[in-house]
Amino acid sequence: MRKLKLLMLIGSLFSIQLLFAQTKTVSGKITDAKDGSPLAGVSVKPKGNVTAGTTTGLDGSFNLSVDAKTKVLVFSSIGYSEKEVTISDKEIVISMVQSDNSLSEVVVVGYGTKIKRDITGSVSRVGAKELANTPVTSFENALQGRAAGVFIEQQNGKVGQGIKVRVRGSASVSAGSEPLYVLDGIPLITTNLSSNGATTNPLADINPNDIESIEILKDASSAAIYGSRGSNGVVLISTKKGKAGKSKIEFGYFTGTQKPTRKMEFMNSEEYVQLFRLAAIGAGRQDFLRGLYPTLQAAIDANVLFVESRMTRYSAGNTDWQTYKVNTDWQALAFQDAPISQYDLNFSGGNDKTIFFMAGQYLDQKGIMVRNGFKRYSGRLNLENKVRDWLSVGMNMNFARSLNSRISNDNAFSTPLQITALSPITPAIDPRTGQTSGALDNATGLPNTNYPVYYNPILSLENASYGTAVNRTIGNVFANVTLMKGLTFRSEFGIDQLNQNEESYNGRKTRRNNGGATFGTGFFTADQIINVNTNNFFRYVTSFKGAHDLEAVAGTSYQNYKSYNSTGTARDFPSDAFTKLVSASTKTDASSSETQFTFLSYFARANYKFNNKYLFSISGRYDGSSRFGKNNRYGFFPAASAGWILSEEKFLSNVKWLNFLKLKASYGQTGNAEIGNFASRGLYSGDAAYGGQPGTRPTQIPNPDLTWENTTSSDIGVEFSILNSRITVEVDYYQRKTKDLLLSVEVPGTSGFATQLRNIGKLDNKGFEFTINSENFVGKNFRWSSSINFAANKNKIKDLKGQVLGGGVNKAKEGYALGTFFAREFAGADPANGDALYIKNTLLPDGKRDRSTTNNYNLAEDVEIGNPNPDFIYGFRNNFSYKGIDLDVLLQGVAGNDIYLAGGQYFAASGSNGFDNQTRDQLKAWQKPGDITNIPEARTFYANGVNASTRYITKGSYLRVKSATLSYSLPKSILNKIKVDRVKIYVRGQNLFTFTDYIGWDPEVNADFSASNISQGNDFYSAPQIKALIFGINIGL
Amino acid sequence: MKNNFLYMAIIGGLVIAAGCDKKLDTVPKQSIDELNALKTASDVQVALIGTYADFGGVDSYGGRIFLNQDLLGDNNELTWTGTFAGMTQIKNKAIPKDNGFVANTWLVSYRAINDLNNVLSALDVLPTQAVKDRTEGEAKFIRGSLFFDLVRSFAKAYNDGTPASNPGVPIVTTPTRGITEADQRPRNTVAEVYTQVIQDLTDAEAKLPTTNGFFATKNAAAAMLARVSLQKGDYANARDAANRVIASAIYSLRPTYAQVFPASAAQVVNHSEDIFAIQVTTAQGANGFHQFYSPQSRGDISIKAAHLALYEAGDARRNLFFVSGGSTFTGKYESRYGNVHILRLAEMYLIRAEANQRLGTSIGATPEQDLTRIRQRVGLPAIIGPTLNDILKERKLELMFEGHTLHDIKRLQGTVGLLPWNDKTLIYPIPQRERNVNSNLTQNEGY
Fold it and tell me: Which residue has the higher pLDDT, A645 or B14?
């Protein structure tokens, strides 16, 4: 080795000698076109020689010795348009223009980076500028509408809760469908650890303002290097680094208010009483028909008496309901004033040896629903040092603490929006006690058991708490060794550690919703996850004969994920002042558990470029996972892609308007391993204690053949830019064919099991995406740019071996998109008697369906009634700037999907399903023979027409003004006077306007308690999304 | 220096790679492999206890297997104001094939059956004949009980047409080791299921000890056999089995009716009248009746005046009802951690009385004597020379809201409103999910 080094040294000295004889020196200075400030760190390279070159210094200047034959220098810097300058005798003084869509942009890919121009796969990039200062809890929200083919949906407007992200459609029925998130090389913990039936989002621990860029690897050629976890796409998050130059101090602050995007309309007292009077008569008719009373009048009388007694009960025991004196708007009480503030302070800088980035953030966000809130403190230090010219080491370190004050899942009586079920005739404060309605029954001295109609969620606001506290440390250390020219070795060791505590206390006044516990109950759970990951890989870059560029990467990766949980519950506390379990007289339960998975992987990739216009890439990963049985532990996931930059060809060199044209195609395989950690084994679990004695039972039927879900993807695309690169367009068409679906297959229940995980079935996604970036107008002072992204994805289940999966209205069924809604077709009220009618839809011998109606739900058949998957999604961004004023507007939309308003069975039930307050449209219920209406007769507790049907399906398309920011940057003249580098003030609206025909709260919805791959697009008292208006300032020193 | 680092890095990388292969062998911590689950006597005992956990699940013997049948058979005596749509459908006798509660009762019951079939398959590892017998007896008690409630919920009543050809439910007596063609089980006939039930319970009675903690005993099996025989219309066997339980003299009526159903915030243990009860503790199990009948919980079922009017003046059972917030509730389920009473001595007296009356016998005691025991406790005078109707009325009031309503209506060929006892809407549908995966299962009429 030593000899080799010596040889190399001699060789290089020799070559320098040679160079010396034929070189010339070029010098110059680079500035930012925007404000004339010097640009440090700009790469300066002779055209056609990627290995030579230098970077500009702190003052923007450079000195470069180049081959005498060199005619053109290429200047490039992240975030700026690449520039080519012909060498003359003069010093090169140029300014560079900032750009979001430059071809020279460096894009992060798996285990490396690539210039956008040379990418042959499909990668979407969203930069820091687009993410910055978004008033949201988690960064995925800020991505919404910004990346083609990436569908992002927040379940509801509760802060810190689950967000669904689908890259090019859902590729799995039973296994996980969320992309793999990798932060600075570490696969992140995304496990939902919530205990209350509504998912939380572990990604909310990350400060969005720490992020430099997010790359989403969408096709197989870019994702296959993540092998068995690439099928759902890979989201690479890179955090900010310092830049050599003057150290910077940046301070950011915003504050504002938040409101629900939309509300629903419910009946007032008068309408409520009227409808339930009708419902009593309707129920009386039914009772009589069933022979429960001797005469119709007797039946009606009995029901009217019953309803009136209930009206009196819900009217706090008096007859105010008869005069509609009390008219409580319960919905308004579910919402709260919701301020949001965020403080950022960061320092960055460096010299030629060391760069650093230090950031701290505090976010204080109230939710729009009462008792909901989120706070996050986070700190980061990214440090990198060039120890030797051949060795650089670094460390990225992030700690965060997030505190989420949470509310119950959508299916709980205590969730704020279920308050809308309470009667408008019920006063908020019970006049008999002067306390919140439901808090006290004078007769018993305990909380009421059946007043108001349901448990009053306000009691949980006042007497209960549920807190989720997370301490998160994400860090990695790395070393980059230059072994020889072009060959580097990188070693990364990262830990993502998550400690979460959930603690809740339900006080005495929550008794009705608390299993009758008179003296309160408490709950505590602690989770600890240690996720260790190490990557070790070589990278080799070379170019030879001026025409061949080769880059190769090869290495290994190992991940070990361990998770521990312990939990305790208790009841009977001395008073509500004592909320810790230590004070409880009865500890009702305690448990602990542990689980683990490991991945061991080998990966490699080679990129080859010929003549700067023919691009080839192959990659592969050999993955092993503990999740699969011994026989199928390893899988191999290869991919290949190619690109052709036509604009470099002679035959296009005369086409002046065409600046760039690339065709590309990729093909490859990825896998999905997102199943339970021990899903292949036959298991007996020890969770079957009985009467205080330990017990076991069989809980899982073995499947030793269980293996990866396999997705084969192909992608073809074209990228071009025209009119002086003012307009750039990217178009992709893809197909993703998934086979061996990891399916929870329903099995005969007589076996003692309900499902078995098997590799069965096929599912396809195909679609097309385009992105257009356009500099519509570039003037001296005024600039207008637009960006459009559009994606249409079609999901289709090809084969499930004839099975139909899904418990609710959403089904997974062959020939249909995943989660397609199936239910009876509702045909309104029978004009003769007010019965809910359904279209039979039974298959006739001639293959048609029987379109006659029936009032017997069982005689009608389920048919496809809608699709929760959008036909297409889009984003449209416009940016206008004039001198220091900047207006940025992002529209985001989803089209062609349907939503099942599952709560309708209670609140749009013509008073036939409980005493729930109803939406105003229910007043149109059938009343007398001959009435033609879509609302069946009101009949208390006869559930007339409330079973699943098209009655509750509605269109879910929407278009939103996702964000609109108006900012003003102080001009240099003022800044110089006050000795500040930058000052920007802005006002920003998030989810400012929503245009939709949806009849529920907000069309971006999926009931949190039931959300799954199959169960999508359900609205069940789900909190509407948050609309925010903020004012902010950024100061740079 | 650089070279050393290079070597270290490469060697380190290889070590990491090679050392990890073993790391793919992770083991579950909360579960064990099924192959290791039934190896010792202790393993089999805990698996038997696990069977009780599923058996006593809230969808099965923990309550709903009875409670939902009471809703289905309600004769305008109770008011349902719940929000569980599946139960509203049952109450309205408009049960869709995919009703989730119906499916869960099926699934949980068969899960318990598979649990116990596993236990029965491993009797060989048990050390003594006595332990073997007890274990076998407990398992068969549970199997017999479950098949009985499955067949009477999911199939035509025994007295409806021809039980020898009416489809019942699939009988499963072997543990599931894998899903195969054999799991495409057709429905056995009603008669076959009854035969299996009686065989299991007879075996259980023979093999079980008289005392066995709160687990199944000889008398529990006999008591269940009495119930089954009565449902079948086999009065002699019903009478004799009930008589065996009473004659064992292990059980006694609680002094007052209220003491049978103690209202307590704390955990309640079995009492002298309990022949068998599903255990509910603060940590395990749940009382499905409490959940819906008690205003301390959901309070979805309140009692109509029509029912209250059935009681004679002075009937202590009438006093157990109470008013909360303007509605009347039964006081039977005011204990959150109260055991679910499955078989209690009063039922045995009533079975013996009814059977003796029908057969004109006085085995054990005269019908009048048995009836008097029940009536005296609740402060009612004896009926001299009671008629069958007197006994049946007593039975209804004594056992109300305990899961007998619909089955008695079917047995006695009564009505539910205008519906005759054998109306098809009074039988559960075979769950749609089950028919989706088992083409050999036929659906009940009307679904």
Answer: A645
d(CA B165, CA B171): 15
Closest chain A C-alpha to B385 CA, distance in angstroms: 32
Q: Is the pLDDT of residue A3 over 80?
A: no
Spatial neighbors of A487 by CB under 8 A, at least 6 apart, are A538, A539, A540, A541
**Residue A839 forms beta bridges with which residues?**
A825, A853
Between CA A604 and CA B93 the distance in angstroms is 64
Token reading at A1009: 């308690």
Decide: pTM greater than 0.95: no
Residue A335 to residue A369: CA distance in whole angstroms: 5
Q: What type of residue sits at position A686?
A: G
**Residues B384, B407: Cα–Cα separation, whole Å:** 28
Per the prediction, chain B carries an average pLDDT of 92
Q: Kindly report the backbone phi and psi dihedral angles of residue B172, in degrees, each rounded to the nearest multiple of 5, phi listed first.
A: -125, 120
**CA–CA distance from A593 to each of A563, A566, A567 (Å)?**
8, 6, 9
Q: Tell me the CA distances in angstroms from A160 to A152, A157, A414, A596, B63, one per residue in order.
A: 15, 9, 18, 25, 38
Residue with token string 């459908």: B89
The closest CB to that of B296, out of A454, A516, A598, belongs to A516
Digit-coded pLDDT (tens) for A246-305:
899 999 999 999 999 999 999 999 999 999 999 999 999 999 998 889 999 999 999 999
Looking up tokens 């359900």 gives A1018
Residues 6+ apart with CB under 8 A from A840: A849, A850, A851, A852, A853, A854, A859, A860, A861
Higher-pLDDT residue of A79 and B170 is B170
Q: Are B56 and A690 in contact (CB under 8 A)?
A: yes
Residue A653's pLDDT is what? 80
Task: Give the mean pLDDT of A593-609.
Answer: 93
Distance CA A53, CA A48 (A): 11
Question: Is A558's CB within 8 Å of B285's CB?
Answer: no
Ranges of beta strands (E only) in B247-319 are 274-278, 301-303
Residue B13 confidence (pLDDT) above 70? no
Cβ-proximal residues to A976 (8 Å cutoff; 6+ apart), any chain: none
Closest CA to A220 of A605, A608, A615: A605
pLDDT at B311 over 90: yes
Q: What is the mean pLDDT of chain A?
A: 91
Angstrom distance (rounded) from CA A416 to CA B24: 45
Nearest-Cα distance to chain A for B87, in Å, is 11
B-chain residues within 8 Å CB-CB of A692? 279, 281, 283-284
The Cα A647–Cα B439 span in angstroms is 62
Under the phi-then-psi rule, with left for phi > 0, alpha for psi from -120 to 50, and beta for the rest, what region is B76? left
Q: What are the residue ranges of helices labelled H in A753-898?
A: none
Distant-in-sequence, close-in-space partners of A97: CB < 8 Å, separation ≥ 6: A33, A34, A80, A81
CA distance A27 to chain B (A): 33
Q: Which pLDDT band, with edges at 50, 70 and 90, does A78 fall under?
A: low
pLDDT of residue B33: 84
- Please indicate if any CB of chain B lies within 8 Å of the CB of A944: no
Note the ipTM here: 0.91
The pLDDT, as a whole number, for residue B371 is 97
Buried-exposed string B159-189: b where 16+ CB fall within 10 A, e elsewhere: eeeebeebbbbbbbeebbeebeeebebebbb
pLDDT class of A13 with cuts at 50, 70, 90: very low
Percent of chain A with pLDDT over 90: 74
CB distance B434–A749 less than 8 Å?
yes
Q: Average of pLDDT values for A993-1020?
A: 94
